[in-house]
Design goal:
The protein is of the alpha/beta class and 285 residues long. The chain folds into two domains: 3-72, no CATH class; 76-284, Glycerol-3-phosphate (1)-acyltransferase. 45% of the residues lie in helices and 15% in strands. The protein is built from nine helices and nine strands. It has helices at 3-13, 19-46, 51-72, 75-88, 117-124, 143-149, 162-177, 202-211, 272-284; strands spanning 90-95, 106-110, 129-134, 153-155, 181-184, 219-225, 236-238, 241-243, 255-261. The strands form two sheets. A seven-stranded mixed sheet has the order 1-9-6-2-5-3-4, sandwiched between helices. The chain has a two-stranded antiparallel sheet with strand order 7-8. Strand 7 (236-238) and strand 8 (241-243) form a beta hairpin. The mean pLDDT is 87.
């Protein structure tokens, strides 16, 4: 129940050229820790500890180690939380997820309807995703903490903070350089009327910067549907402004939402308007 997933994770995250040595090193470490734990258990028994107390000590030690591992690689627990939320808050249906690359760098582009769009993409992807997100969302309770742990990249408008704007694109290229998935919402902001907004040029800037370094990352169009009108969308109007999270359960619990994933677009063919048309077509299906 516990060991097999961990062994699978080791094999998944190791390079094929180093996999055998990594597995061998893991087996050696396991043997060393088994010997060490036996010595510690014997010492505790010799010191007068009871069996229940030794189990308590072991449980506390495991909790400390689990927290340490979570701080090192939080993405897997976060993806599990996202998966649970997407299945228990919504009836989440995914089509075309086979188009998400299982390895190598890629850019995911999606329409932006609600504050939990990134959570749903995180739940749908077989791999961890690094998101480029408006710096304001990091101020939202719980969600801001979640995205910080997920190592999302904050971006501010160029006029507001030019340094943060350029730093975000530099980090985005670094993500692709490392062969990971990068997600961006090209509309640049949450929709205020439920309609797909024009795509900005940020995705082109990332693609061009990556190609200048020889990184040919495909762009995967995606479309989230039926989220407009949910608690996390900006459908409510307060003092003349569209706001989100103003009326809990406005559509009831377990409403159906969907994600359609389209075929990857080669980087040489990427254009903002063409991507927008692809996302629009996915919304219509």
């Amino acid at each position: 129940l516990y060991s097999v997933p961990m062994y699978a994770l080791i094999q998944l995250r190791s390079q094929p050229t180093h996999r055998a040595r990594i597995i061998a090193a893991n087996n050696i470490l396991n043997a060393l820790f088994m010997i060490a734990s036996s010595v510690i258990a014997g010492a505790l028994l010799g010191a007068g500890f009871t069996i229940p107390q030794i189990f308590l000590f072991t449980g506390i030690a495991n909790a400390v180690v689990a927290f340490y591992i979570f701080m090192l690689v939080p993405e897997y627990l976060l993806r599990f939380i996202a998966w649970v939320l997407s299945r228990f808050v919504y009836r989440f249906r995914i089509r075309g997820d086979e188009h998400i690359p299982t390895e190598g760098a890629a850019i995911l582009v999606c329409n932006h309807v609600s504050f939990i769009d990134a959570v749903l993409l995180m739940a749908a992807s077989p791999r961890p995703i690094r998101f480029i997100m408006d710096h304001q969302i990091f101020k939202v309770p719980v969600l801001g903490w979640l995205f910080k742990l997920a190592k999302a990249i904050p971006i501010a408008p160029q006029k507001e903070d030019p340094a943060a704007y350029e730093a975000a694109f530099a980090q985005a290229v670094q993500v692709l350089r490392e062969g990971d998935l990068l997600a961006i919402f090209p509309e640049g902001a949450l929709t205020r009327d439920g309609e797909l907004q024009p795509f900005r040029g940020g995705v082109m800037k990332i693609v061009d910067a990556a190609r200048s370094e020889g990184i040919e990352a495909p762009v995967v169009p995606m479309a989230l549907s039926n989220l407009w009108g949910s608690y996390f969308s900006r459908i409510e109007v307060r003092s003349g402004k569209n706001v989100a999270m103003a009326k809990p359960f406005r559509r009831g619990a377990f409403s159906s939402v969907g994600l359609n994933v389209g075929s990857p677009v080669p980087p040489a063919e990427v254009q903002p308007e063409a991507l927008r048309q692809r996302v629009s077509a996915l919304l219509a299906t």
